[in-house]
Write a structure and sequence with these properties.
This protein has about 110 residues and is mostly beta strands. The chain is about 10% helix and about 45% strand. The protein has a 6-stranded antiparallel barrel with strand order 1-2-3-6-5-4. Strand 2 and strand 3 form a beta hairpin. The longest helix has 10 residues. It is globular, with a radius of gyration of 14 Å. The mean pLDDT is about 85.
């Protein structure tokens, strides 16, 4: 199983989404996104490969897809239908990844 090269660049962001899977709902963080999928931070919750997932980010239609990979507290979701690149850009502007403060500015 050679992994396919990604078709498009994923953009980093930090956005919470309701995540519905077969055994219930969780609030999880989307850490990067592209037209065809996203990466979810799941922490200790593994989600099995091929598991159906429905994400409900705030103010967005549901994003349905399935888990393609799982490693180190993250899972990769491939969307059933690609989302528009303008939506990706919009989300990344709305929910920029928190850049860590330099230590010298720590309170």
């Amino acid at each position: 199983g050679k992994s396919m090269p990604r078709r498009e660049a994923r953009q980093r962001l930090d956005m919470m989404a309701q995540c519905r899977i077969s055994d219930g709902k969780r609030e999880l963080s989307i850490s990067d996104i592209s037209e065809n999928g996203c990466r979810l931070a799941v922490g200790m919750f593994g989600i099995p490969i091929n598991q159906r997932v429905v994400l409900s980010p705030r103010g967005l239609d549901c994003l349905a897809g399935r888990v393609k990979w799982c490693s180190d507290g993250f899972v990769g979701i491939e969307f059933d239908r690609p989302i528009h690149v303008a939506v990706v850009d919009h989300l990344c502007r709305l929910y920029p990844e928190e850049t860590p403060m330099p230590l010298s500015f720590a309170a």
